[in-house]
Specification:
Shape: globular
Order of helices and strands: EEEEHEEEEHHEEEE
Structural class: alpha+beta
Number of strands: 12
Largest sheet: 5 strands, mixed, barrel
Length: 226
């Protein structure tokens, strides 16, 4: 079945932190009516599903006018074309794909333990830099948005709740094309996650797209790999 509670969260970011565990995320705190909210962004590869990512500057959202017209806070979305829902395979901007796999960069897994033995200090430093490239990019964008008094982050993904109220949003990545038995229960179309950052002081949009190497970009009407 598709991901639960597909939504977009619009809010004013106030800070963030790295949260480790089985899957390392960068958690952004957002202020908006009904909040505060937590935005959980995958920043490292886990379980053999290497992360692919793209930071697209001077980006144009597929429907930026309706996006800016949204109220601050969590808005449920219908997983269908013609609205604000995103689909990495199907969404178009000015007649061109919103994002392609060729635009994305592989995020290396951080080397640990014995894998670091024998490496020079420079190679260890570069391993750390490469494996934290996405984390550092998200932090930079977060700080830029905080610095812009009218800056807004739009986070697309799966809303989650705790104790009966919406607390945040996760699954901020491609949510289709997973192979059978590997998150295939999340497959669906028009339900992909992303971050769109609007900086009015610079008249600029930036997008953060995340996917996994195990996900196919050739999917059927149910989001399953063809």
């Amino acid at each position: 079945m598709p991901i639960a509670s597909y939504s977009v969260l619009a809010g004013d970011p106030t800070g963030g932190k790295v949260v480790g565990g089985a899957s390392t995320h960068y958690q952004i705190t957002m202020q908006a009516p009904g909040g505060p909210f937590t935005v959980a962004v995958n920043i490292q590869s886990v379980d053999g599903s290497e992360v692919l990512y793209a930071i697209v500057e001077n980006f144009t959202p597929p429907d930026w006018a309706d996006l800016k017209a949204l109220p601050m806070g969590m808005t449920p979305l219908q997983s269908q074309p013609g609205g604000l829902a995103l689909d990495f395979v199907r969404s178009q901007v000015n007649g061109k794909p919103m994002i392609t796999k060729d635009q994305m960069t592989l995020l290396p897994k951080p080397l640990k333990g014995k894998a670091l033995e024998g490496l020079s200090a420079h190679d260890k430093m570069m391993n750390d830099v490469r494996s934290k490239a996405l984390q550092n990019a998200v932090i930079t964008l977060l700080n830029m948005t905080i610095a812009d008094k009218d800056g807004v982050i739009y986070a697309f993904g799966s809303a989650y709740s705790d104790g009966g109220r919406v607390d945040g949003i996760h699954d901020i990545h491609m949510n289709q094309g997973n192979p059978i038995g590997n998150h295939s229960g999340d497959n669906g179309i028009w339900q992909d996650g992303a971050l769109f950052i609007n900086l009015p002081s610079q008249s600029k949009w930036t997008a953060v797209f995340i996917a996994f190497q195990t996900e196919s970009w050739n999917t059927d009407g149910s989001g399953n790999p063809v």
